[in-house]
Amino acid sequence: RDHIRTPPGSNSHKVYGCSLHAYKHTSIPSGATSFDARGTSGVKVYVLYNPNAVKKAAGASRWTLNSQVEVIVSMDIPSSSVNDSKVRISYYGQKENAPVEGAWLYLTCVTWSVFVPDPFVLPLQTKWTWGPEGQGAVLLVNCDRDSPGAKDMDSAYQYVQSYADLEDMSLMILRTQGPSAIFADYKLVLHISVADVDKVRVFHASGSGSLAQYKHVLGLDKRSYIVDRSSGQEEDTFYVEGLAFPDADFSGLVSFHVTLLEVSDKNAPDTPIFTDTVVFRVAPWIMMPNTLQPLEVFVCSMERGSNPNGDFLEAMRALVRKANCKLTVCPEVENRRDRWIQDEMEFGYVEAPHKVFPVVFDSPRDRGLRDFAFRRILGPDFGYVTRVPPHGHVSSLDSFGNLDVSPPVTVQGKTYPLGRILIGSSLPRSGGRRMTKAVRDFLYAQKVQPPVELYSDWLRVGHVDEFLSFVPAPDRKGFRLLLASPDACYKLFKEKQREGHGNMAQFAGEWLSQDMLADKTLRSDSEYVQSCIDWNRHTLKEELGLTEQDIIDIPQLFMLNGSRADAFFPDMVNMIVLGKHLGIPKPFGPIVDGRCCLEENVRSLLEPLGLVCIFINDFFSYHTLLGEIHCGTNVLRKPFSFKWWNMIL
């Protein structure tokens, strides 16, 4: 079906292997100086020669017996029986008009093709190429769980779990045409390399109609499979599933070879006659930015303890209703007192021309929610992947609040139609915390969203979602980058002070705005934080092709706790984006004319873009625990309409 990409105007859909089986060759007779060659119907005879060494008489069909003369024989139509086609070679002496001797070359033509049964697909090639004019087949990692009773992903089983399981696989058909009697002396072998044997699994369909008919023939402990030709059937159907995503040690390309072998005596190896190679690429895991349509929101319920989130859940239910998407609440018995669901997992998807389904990437942080993704999200047409560092050591930067992706961007003429992944890290050569290599290697290996490493180690928690977010916009690039900004906050407070509001209270009277402006420690902390954010600002502008007009500064103060920073008041960029509806942490800022001046400032920045700002109180349920709304929620979104294989790399 549609496991191969289709270029405009393509009609060809087969790759042929052809073997000519020949008999009765005699040596050149004594005295012969020339020859001619003629084939029976369906046989084409070509003569190649070096015109500088051989002279051909005009109109003559004879050729000088010379090492510079080569005869090529081909057939386009498979034989109906063994030796049903012939080439006659006639040898001539120097003066004789009649041949002095003749020889017959008996031919049997066998063709085979590996193809996808779609009239518009490209030929399978030995190279896989990117772009709209590219070609090649696509494999999905069979990482979902289609059978309700199964305990693991479908790829963990060496048999077909269900008919739904087959729909996640790529169909491959081997068609062989020619007399079956030829396979008394020859055999057709499907095989893969040692490097690929643990990356794919192949099932051969026998045609009985039951699940048992799908025989595991390649992959893991099976490197080759002899295709039985004794039945004389022309087509053999295979189902191919991916077992591994691209990674540091795997490019994502898998080669299948079909070789015709001449059966030798028991004491000698079989002789290869011809080999075709076809290449598949395993579909990458793709992240989804805030600008894509939200489908489902996940949040944890925390009913017991000193920081319950019942009021927060009610606010989230109201927000999700406005955004017209589904809400899934992970109960306390499943989250085991772990509310940070964004840190535990990241939603993405995989896509082939015949199918697309979401895949959850489970982080290595493994706290209370460590089993949630595998036990509750993995299921029919919902896949699962994880990466664990070899020695088990993880830091806060391995949580997926430290993993984001930009909307599509163009940078100095190069387009990233699926955006670029953003990873929080330490400064180059600083020796600070970094996301574990196992996760970084996986993200880089997907290729279609080349990662950008930012500086987040200046934060105590160390996540990129503490200082940046993306929101949709109707103009320019289709989005705005939001950056937390101490400078913008001080500018706002100074402006309000000049207007006579210096006695405004922050946190319901705990701080006055004029006291915050006068606090030298807070000011010094904020200057340091601003320098860290400015470093990221420069990197983001350079790596995402942004200008100042693409960036909105959101007022925010931070304070240092030791050598690293925490948000001074609820961090407004750490928001949930559901289409035009934004769930923003309520900052409890200074009140001017009965309204929070921080909220009013943010509204003035975002509402002209058609966005709806909804401020939600997460102060005790999340902020005092060093997180905010984005940290405590997760969003499944609709995949990109752009097809990843059309990228120009």
TrEMBL record:
UniProt superkingdom:
Eukaryota
Which Gene Ontology terms cover its molecular function?
calcium ion binding; protein-arginine deiminase activity
Where do the catalytic residues lie?
Answer: 343, 463, 465, 631
Q: Where is the Protein-arginine deiminase (PAD) central domain?
A: 125-262
Q: Which UniProt keywords apply?
A: Calcium, Cytoplasm, Hydrolase
Query: Which reactions appear under catalytic activity for this entry?
Result: L-arginyl-[protein] + H2O = L-citrullyl-[protein] + NH4(+)
Please state every residue range assigned to the domain named Protein-arginine deiminase (PAD) N-terminal: 15-108
* Membrane-spanning ranges: none
Q: To which protein family does this belong?
A: Belongs to the protein arginine deiminase family.
State the protein's name: protein-arginine deiminase
* Organism field: Chelonoidis abingdonii
